[in-house]
Design a protein that fits this description.
single chain, alpha+beta, Alpha-Beta Plaits, about 25% helix
């Protein structure tokens, strides 16, 4: 299965330590392959098994909130 990418808008984080905490929380979610986190958002690459509920739960552990969840919809790759 090709990787899936989700773009998150987060409630503003108070600083770099919070950004690191969110990164660590996302890294602990099974299926997450990569995450880039900023003060107001994140881009997460996953294997297709990750749900918004899983990410909400991980983020709640560090005091964050997802404001918007937008998944990229790629075209399927056909091997010829």
């Amino acid at each position: 299965m090709p990787p899936r990418i989700v773009h998150l808008t987060l409630a503003p984080l108070p600083g770099v330590h919070a950004v690191r905490a969110v990164f660590t929380a996302f890294a602990g979610v099974p299926g997450v392959r990569r995450a880039e986190v900023t003060l107001v958002g994140a881009t997460v690459e996953h294997d297709g098994t990750v749900s918004r509920a899983m990410m909400d739960e991980a983020l709640a552990l560090v005091g964050g909130t997802i404001v918007e969840w937008r998944e990229e919809r790629g075209l399927p790759v056909i091997d010829g």
